[in-house]
Design brief:
The chain is mainly α. The protein folds into 2 domains: about 30-150, 2-Layer Sandwich (PX Domain), CATH 3.30.1520; about 190-390, Arfaptin homology (AH) domain/BAR domain (Substrate Binding Domain Of Dnak, Chain:A, Domain 2, Up-down Bundle). The protein contains 10 helices and 3 strands. It has helices at about 5-10, 20-30, 80-90, 115-135, 140-150, 150-160, 165-180, 190-235, 245-310, 315-390; strands spanning about 35-45, 50-60, 70-75. Strands 1-2-3 form a 3-stranded antiparallel sheet. A hairpin with a 4-residue loop joins strand 1 and strand 2 (about 50-60). Belongs to the sorting nexin family. This is SNX7 protein.
Length: about 400
């Protein structure tokens, strides 16, 4: 189940349209089991003397008993989402926390604070919260509940209750100490296979991400040139009376193809680029989770070695080793379950995304082909009419 070939496999039994049968099945199967629904919408710009930032409305509807109300509406900025992600990582170091979009997007794609940028980020933040809501453990995290329900001043107050500087420094020192111990001696083979899988997956998905962005850029350049290409034929037709209709027909075909190209670009930017880049970010997250699991394992190994070399006072060491063994087992079980869930979601997302792109490409080429075939048919009719008129006495 860990071979990378599964990522690229395509089963003929998968319905052709990811927006039809598959999604309908998933939608119909889900709502009965879900009890938490979250929507991120209504972005607003805020300009102060110090900074400019965007807030988003987060609407939560739930039937859970631990919530005081069935519906909440709060406004959150990007910094608040970052805080939530860090709290989830702190509370669940060996679970796979969904990625957030980077603070700054790739240069040359869209301008910061443009409508396109804000909409792209809104969708990513919406997906981030709903992935957490669908997670069997993260969804019940107390900080997640506070994020969804607390007003701005309440959230600010809660943020200040985080660990102090000395506590954070201690955590950093322990993490650094664990990371420099070298390779883990007793790492289970399962996690070695996960690590190898992620190294290969990371290479492939990063390459796909770069190629997809290059394709999008070339498509955009082609679209911009095509917008200039059609009007030239229209202008030309004004000075060529004999072929004016032909030139106008070509201009019309180019205009249709230009609109079709714009639709295809929208499909790439909405259904392919975000998915690929999300899993580029997932690679960093998963490698971090595997490293944190290894740190827990390394701490246990060091205590076992210390106990083996110690001749007296073994009881306190034995008790601590037992505690660490339980911690390692919990970490292993949590990561295994999350790994299976992540892999299933990844394969679903990739298959849906690539199928969607394939369908968009088919529609694009069929539309362009039909446009030019219609033009050729009209020219063929005109030629026959001219030949008939010349043959008459």
């Amino acid at each position: 189940d860990t071979s990378l070939s599964e990522v690229n496999s395509f089963s003929p039994s998968v319905p052709k349209s990811p927006s039809s049968t598959i999604n309908q099945y998933k939608f119909e199967d889900g709502p009965e089991l879900r009890d938490l629904f979250i929507t991120v919408d209504d972005p607003e710009s805020h300009i102060t003397a110090i900074e400019t930032f965007i807030t988003y409305r987060v609407v939560t509807k739930t039937t859970r008993g631990e919530f005081d109300s069935s519906e909440y509406e709060v406004r959150r900025r990007y910094q608040d989402f970052l805080w939530l992600k860090s709290k989830l990582e702190e509370a669940h170091p060996t679970l796979i926390i969904p990625p957030l979009p980077e603070k700054f997007i790739m240069k040359g794609m869209v301008e910061r604070f443009s409508d396109e940028f804000i909409e792209t980020r809104r969708k990513a933040l919406h997906k981030f919260l709903n992935r957490i809501a669908d997670h069997p453990t993260l969804t019940f995290n107390e900080d997640f509940k506070i994020f969804l329900t607390a007003q701005a001043w309440e959230l600010s107050s809660h943020k200040k209750q985080g660990p102090g500087l000395l506590s954070r420094m201690g955590q950093t020192v322990r993490a650094v100490a664990s990371s420099v111990r070298g390779a883990v001696k007793n790492r289970p083979e399962t996690f070695t296979e996960m690590n190898n899988y992620m190294e290969t997956f990371s290479q492939k998905i990063n390459l796909l991400d770069k190629i997809a962005h290059r394709i999008y850029k070339e498509e955009r350049d082609y679209f911009n040139e095509m917008k200039e290409y059609g009007p030239i034929h229209t202008l030309w037709s004004a000075s060529e009376e004999d072929i004016a209709d032909c030139l106008k027909g070509i201009a019309s075909c180019i205009d249709h193809c230009c609109k079709a190209t714009e639709k295809r670009m929208a499909g790439l930017s909405q259904h392919l680029l975000p998915i690929l880049h999300e899993y580029v970010l997932y690679c960093e997250i998963l490698m971090g989770v595997l490293k944190r699991r290894d740190q827990i394992q390394g701490e246990l190994d060091s205590k076992v070695d210390a106990l083996a070399n110690k001749k007296t006072e073994k009881d306190p060491f034995s008790e601590e080793i037992g505690r660490l063994e339980d911690k390692v087992e919990r970490a292993n079980n949590a990561l295994k379950a999350d790994w299976d869930r992540w892999k299933q979601n990844m394969q679903w997302d990739m298959r849906s995304s690539f199928t969607n792109v394939a369908e968009n490409n088919l529609r694009y080429y069929e539309e362009c082909l039909a446009t030019w075939e219609s033009f050729l048919a009209s020219q063929s009719v005109d030629l026959h009419v001219e030949e008939d008129s010349e043959d008459r006495p």
